[in-house]
Design goal:
Elements: E1 2-8, H1 12-23, H2 34-37, H3 46-60, E2 70-79, H4 80-86, E3 93-96, H5 109-113, H6 141-167, H7 172-175, E4 184-192, H8 193-203, H9 210-226, H10 228-238
Antiparallel strand pairs: 1-2, 2-4, 3-4
Helix pairs in contact: 1-3, 3-10, 8-9, 9-10
The structure holds flavin-adenine dinucleotide.
């Protein structure tokens, strides 16, 4: 998979701090410089003041100000299974590549056998991989070779059947019914910084599936570049705790 930051609110932590200061400020923040707005916050520099205020907001559970900055991510090549999990989050906006208007008629089924178009779960190739809800532990090499053979044969033949149905004049929207849930999809999604922390609480957690965890870690890395003080605090003090942004 590939995850990129497409667009995001400029200077998101200035927006967060200004919104939070508005709540306790008699003067109108719209008439003040940022330095004036932050004047009573502890710290020698504006950066220090921002760090202190953001840490305090997150520590006290004052999450509203984190709803103002928004980021848009482009995601390439996750499974439709992962997409189904991700799109359960109702305060995230999505655009999903259509299987009604995009036909995978050019894909060579032999490339599918080699891993194209359908996501290969690690348990199909790694004997030591132990998935959640899996009966027993790792398996021997021979078993995993069998697993991989069954998996590859199944996804290849699905794509062959799909293309055969297209050749027989079936519309992509109906032919897609034979494609596996592991079929890759591209997504654009937008959310605010609070929601990003909430999605991470749920989807970077140990009980989430490996694919959405990997995706969430990718999004978190990008969020750390975009909104550094917030996600540094989140990683250090909040991540892996019981979800608390949406009690
Ligand atoms: C490990 C794991 C396993 C899961 N297994 C299943 C499963 O087997 N079957 C299944 O169906 N789902 C499953 N889910 C999905 C899960 O139940 C949620 O639907 C999904 O994660 C969306 O998160 P959310 O409920 O926090 O809502 P979001 O849409 O992310 O909303 C964020 C918060 O807003 C508030 N909110 C939003 N809408 C409402 C509303 N209508 N009413 C009240 N409050 C609201 C809630 O506080 C919510 O936490 C699983 C999720 C995880 C992480």
């Amino acid at each position: 998979m590939d995850v990129r930051l497409l667009e995001a609110t400029d200077d998101p932590e200035r927006v967060i701090c200004t919104a939070a200061r508005n709540d306790y400020s008699a003067p109108f923040v719209g008439d003040q410089s940022f330095a004036e707005t932050m004047a009573t916050i502890d710290g020698q520099t504006i950066e220090e003041k921002k760090r202190n205020l953001i840490g305090r907001l997150l520590d006290h559970g004052h999450f509203g100000p984190f709803e103002h900055p928004q980021a848009t991510f482009a995601i390439e090549g996750v499974s439709r299974s992962c997409m189904a999990q991700l799109t359960r989050h109702r305060h995230v906006s999505f655009d999903v590549q259509s299987m009604r208007y995009v036909a995978f008629d050019e894909v060579d089924p032999e490339d599918v056998r080699d891993g194209a178009m359908v996501v290969t779960p690690p348990s199909a190739t790694d004997p030591d991989w132990v998935g959640r809800n899996q009966r027993g532990g790792g398996v021997d090499e021979e078993t995993v070779e069998q697993r991989e053979a069954v998996f590859r044969e199944s996804v290849t033949s699905s794509v062959e059947s799909y293309q055969e149905l297209l050749d027989l004049g079936m519309a992509p929207e109906d032919a897609r019914f034979v494609l596996p849930i592991g079929t890759e999809v591209n997504i654009v999604m937008s959310m605010n910084a609070r929601m990003l922390m909430h999605v991470s609480d749920m989807r970077a957690a140990a009980d989430a599936q490996w694919e959405i965890r990997e995706l969430t870690e990718g999004v978190l890395d990008l969020a750390g570049d975009w909104c550094p003080l917030t996600f540094e605090y989140y990683e250090e003090h909040m991540k892996d705790r019981k979800n608390r942004l949406a009690p």
